[in-house]
């Protein structure tokens, strides 16, 4: 059995080899934590974005979209708290000269206790078989109890230090836990200090007249400063939502794990405006809706979990993450936050403009509260790719690498293949492809043996392959091969639209997520 780390390395290599993700500016040896999406990757990414966008604006008549500029007036980021508070606690190892996020070092250390507990449970499960009661075992086994006590003691200190922004205590936890640098293996640490994550640049034609502006570190503020414009021009009534897909930029010091944490990334966010006092009801509603959206893809319900925040952001009164089981553990893919009226009140204060909403039903003006759902496109891409990547041993000693992508998201939906490059088969194959290409992203392949062609399509996740043979010219039937089962069936050309459409239509997913 290959380790998860090996599988992840293979996945990264696969992404490059098959045109999903390339290191940016690779001919110049790349740029740290910046990646380009290749010809297959961009199709998958666009399909993810379409699935999200349509699930928001088609399924909810009170949700609309905007596309706000990346550059915003610099006071925006003062009002949002990013200029003063958008910091990470960083610590350097003096021997390796490497810089780390102090909170991530401690979280990784805490995760080791969970691993130890799971190992004890797995050993006991093998020993006791079906009669094994995990809960009872965890409550009584001395080794498990010892690890739980150690973890909980560190965890409570960690949470208290984060709440108080106590940088000295964060360092003390690292020292007390004897956490070593993964590179040098030493405990020779500097003090912890804060580092602002925003990229800044200048706007203006002269050095004297230039204004310092920022590349946005999130897309949400573009929605907040426009909410009244949208409400008035769209005659929207609270509750209503505004969604947006766009790039954001963070000068991540510890950018790692491929496209999981990048300096330039894409977010899909919705801000949902509600009456004060109703926010927790809507928080719960969107939590459940967003989880159904993820699970509808069929990647495995057990791969998702909610993780409530230990430390709430200064603007939130409730926050949870939807985590997905990546090859390197459960990691956040989406955040759902009850942001209260922090953002709108702050923009009202800093701008001096009245941006309250007048509610005709109760005949009063108020600052709406906001529920946010925020998902990283790149993290979603990574979670889908890691769940889809499979190495299969086949009968007869053969093997294949197959991407079992959800058919609706697959970059190419169907590949049309003439059995041989003569006897009118390529012409017939082109005729079929020209009919299908108006509805589905199609590929055409006539090179190599049919087996090799199937393997190529398996590796990029194409759900259907259609083979045109000599019999096709007589009976207008083709062989359609299904990616996951490798089953082949003879079908009429006239039935292809129905067979493919039944699998790749997003409507099927939407029906699963609407209550």
Description of the molecule:
The protein is built from 18 helices and 23 strands. The chain has three domains: 1-84 and 197-391, 2-Layer Sandwich (BirA Bifunctional Protein, domain 2); 87-195, 2-Layer Sandwich (Herpes Virus-1), CATH 3.30.40; 401-513, Anticodon-binding domain (Rossmann fold, 3-Layer(aba) Sandwich), CATH 3.40.50. Helix content is 40%, strand content 24%. β19, α14 (425-436) and β20 form a beta-alpha-beta unit. The longest helix has 27 residues, at 102-128. The chain has a seven-stranded mixed sheet with strand order 3-9-10-16-13-12-11. Strands 20-19-21-22-23 form a five-stranded mixed sheet, with helices on both faces. The mean pLDDT is 90. The two termini are 40 Å apart.
State the gist of this model:
With 515 residues, this protein is of the alpha+beta class.
Biggest sheet statistics: 7 strands, mixed
What is the oligomer described by this structure?
single chain
Number of helices: 18
The second-level CATH architecture of the largest domain is 2-Layer Sandwich
Under the CATH scheme, which class of the largest domain? Answer: Alpha Beta
């Amino acid at each position: 059995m290959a380790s998860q780390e090996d599988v992840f390395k293979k996945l990264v290599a696969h992404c490059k080899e098959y045109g999903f993700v390339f290191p940016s500016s690779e001919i110049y040896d790349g740029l740290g934590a910046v990646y380009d999406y290749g010809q297959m990757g961009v199709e998958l990414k666009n399909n993810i974005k379409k699935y999200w966008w349509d699930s928001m604006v088609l399924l909810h008549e009170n949700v609309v979209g905007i596309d706000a500029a990346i550059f915003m007036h610099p006071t925006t980021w003062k009002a949002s708290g990013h200029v003063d508070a958008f910091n990470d606690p960083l610590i350097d190892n003096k021997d390796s000269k490497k810089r780390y996020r102090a909170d991530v070092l401690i979280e990784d250390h805490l995760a080791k206790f969970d691993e130890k507990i799971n190992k004890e449970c797995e050993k006991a499960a093998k020993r006791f078989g079906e009669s094994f009661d995990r809960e009872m075992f965890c409550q009584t086994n001395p080794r498990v109890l010892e690890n739980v006590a150690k973890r909980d003691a560190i965890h409570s200190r960690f949470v208290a230090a984060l709440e108080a922004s106590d940088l000295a205590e964060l360092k003390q936890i690292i020292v007390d836990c004897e956490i070593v640098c993964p590179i040098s293996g030493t405990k020779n640490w500097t003090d912890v200090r804060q580092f602002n994550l925003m990229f800044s640049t200048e706007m203006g034609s002269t050095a004297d007249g230039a204004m310092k502006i920022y590349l946005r570190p999130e897309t949400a503020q573009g929605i907040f400063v426009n909410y009244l414009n949208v409400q008035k021009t769209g005659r929207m009534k609270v509750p209503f939502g505004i969604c947006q897909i766009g790039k954001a930029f963070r000068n991540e010091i510890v950018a790692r794990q491929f496209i999981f944490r990048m300096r330039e990334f894409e977010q899909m966010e919705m801000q949902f405006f509600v009456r004060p006092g109703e926010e927790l009801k809507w928080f719960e509603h969107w939590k459940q809706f967003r989880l159904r959206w993820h699970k509808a893809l069929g990647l495995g319900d057990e791969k998702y979990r909610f993780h409530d925040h230990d430390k709430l952001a200064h603007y939130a009164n409730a926050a949870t993450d939807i985590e997905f089981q990546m090859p390197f553990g459960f990691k956040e893919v989406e955040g759902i936050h009850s942001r209260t009226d922090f953002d709108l009140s702050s923009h009202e204060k800093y701008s001096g403009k009245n941006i309250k909403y007048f509610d005709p039903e109760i005949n009063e003006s108020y600052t709406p509260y906001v529920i946010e759902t925020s998902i990283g496109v790149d993290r979603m891409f990574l979670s889908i790719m890691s769940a889809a990547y499979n190495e299969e041993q086949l009968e007869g000693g053969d093997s294949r690498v197959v991407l079992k992508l959800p058919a609706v998201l697959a970059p190419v939906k169907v590949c049309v293949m003439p059995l041989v490059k003569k006897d009118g088969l390529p012409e017939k194959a082109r005729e079929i492809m020209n009919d299908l290409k108006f509805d589905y992203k199609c590929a055409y392949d006539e090179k190599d043996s049919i087996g090799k062609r199937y393997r190529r399509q398996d590796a990029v996740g194409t759900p259907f392959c259609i083979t045109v043979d000599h019999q096709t010219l007589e009976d207008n039937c083709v062989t359609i091969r299904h990616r996951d089962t490798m089953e082949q069936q003879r079908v009429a050309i006239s039935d292809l639209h129905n067979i493919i459409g039944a699998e790749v239509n997003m409507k099927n997913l939407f029906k699963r997520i609407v209550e």
